Amino acid sequence: MLASGGVGVRILRTITITSFLILLSAQAVVPSNELAARAGEDELTRVTANLPFTMKRVELPKIPDRSVRVSDFGAVGDGSHLNTSAFAAAIEACAKADGGRVVVPQGIWLTGPIQLKNGIDLHLERGAVIQFSRSINDYQLIRTTWEGSAAVRRMSPINGVGLENISITGNGVIDGAGDAWRMVKKSKLTENEWKKLVASGGIVDKAGDTWWPSVDAMNGAALVRTLDQRSAPLADYAGAAEYLRPVLVSLVECRRVMLDGPTFQNSPAWNIHPVLCEDLVIRNVIALNAWYAQNGDGLDLDSCRRAIVYNCRFDVGDDAICLKSGRDEYGRKRGRPCEEIVICDCIVYHGHGGFTVGSEMSGGVKNVVVRGCTFLGTDLGLRFKTTRGRGGVVEKIWISDIVMKDIPTDAIGFNMFYSGGSPIPENAGPSESASRASMPVNEGTPRFENIYLRNIVCRGAQRAVQIEGLPEMPIRGIELENIQISARTGLVCLDGERIRLNNLQITPTVGPVISVIDSREVTISRSKQGSSAVFLKVEGEKSESIRIEASAFTKKSVQFDRGARKSAVNVVD
Prior knowledge:
573 residues; mainly beta; 37-stranded parallel β-sheet; three-stranded antiparallel β-sheet; 7 helices; globular
């Protein structure tokens, strides 16, 4: 059985003061259905104005003006009565009447999985908490996807497949009981927190650095690998059931979907995961997870089309807002890009990435706008990640008006070596080449191209910008304009092509403002050396066609190393 109580659970359920204030600030009185619909249409018009690509108007769900209350079907909001059957009965009754609103009143409503149906609005009134069960036997084994590939998992607490006109609204809280499922790494807790967690139950692995809620959960990964290799029947996965954590909200192949208002927290794996959905609006939502929550993503849009995300708050344990489209061959065969996406006016506190693309992006990502967002203390601000074997094209992405503060790693990062380690050579001698070996280009070679970033401010980062392509497939067509970043180190471009840097004000504490390694057709304009001793450092035999225009720097602040030629740089007054 999973750990079900004790001090460790209290640790994992702790909500920070910051998160609590987010919750309070986002609560608002829900207006009448008619006023809400009118306000929603006006907001969508504002959010989708002046897009750089053509997108049909996103259709909001059509929910009939009728309602039922779960309490009318025997549900009891005392936090101890299991209400799975009552929720199912209320949804079924509403669905049989061609849809409507299923109202969850104030109270704590313990339940197993909730399966949505066509035309249903699951509405949480103020003070309502849907608390999902901590018993894994309440969640049946299903075939679904996980991290971009076909997989067996437990059924998600809230789920729907092939539905139309569905929504989750209101000012309540949806708690996925994720702390009963997740492993915890010792390195992410204080010594005292770790001791309390271990004392609460569960088991620690042989290395002594990871806590698991049960032995079966700890041994589950190895068993699942064996079962996957022999294409085992679904029932055989029961022995690994405690390892197969579900996402909190799973919506697959649904149309006209809206999430508006609730707080989604404490997810077993990812928090909100729409897959292959169209006409999706997510607004006024809060996603909360402990900062050490394993796979504790906030929102993962996976091969979705026409999605709008705005006025949301994220404080999570992994990537906050993430675009995906399947992994490797599975994603390429599915062939559904994540496209026509608008994200704006969101705030991210903790998260691995504020806005992220990948690494599962094998079906492609294109026609995306991100603007007016704020990232406060996220591990990495704007994050693009992939690796060899993925394939897929990430292109036509416009990012603007982003404010960041206290970023522990990169403010902006493009990494095509994700999970493979960064091969930037730091110990090569001055006469050695910075070049790296190329691999053959094939269907598994990913591409990043035509991505535009402008009006970005960051105060405090480890590195300002990382642009790291593959030797066989450079990152192409990246444009950075009006960028102000203070960081320990500056911009590094490795294996890039057609890179435009316009009006950069990067102030590194150490090292050059801009480092160009094995890159070509790089244009630097209207940028400043500032107080740095080195404005531009060029490395690698493949570096060429680097142009500096209308920029303030001294000639001696341009340096060459590791096989780079002085003729690679052309200065234009």
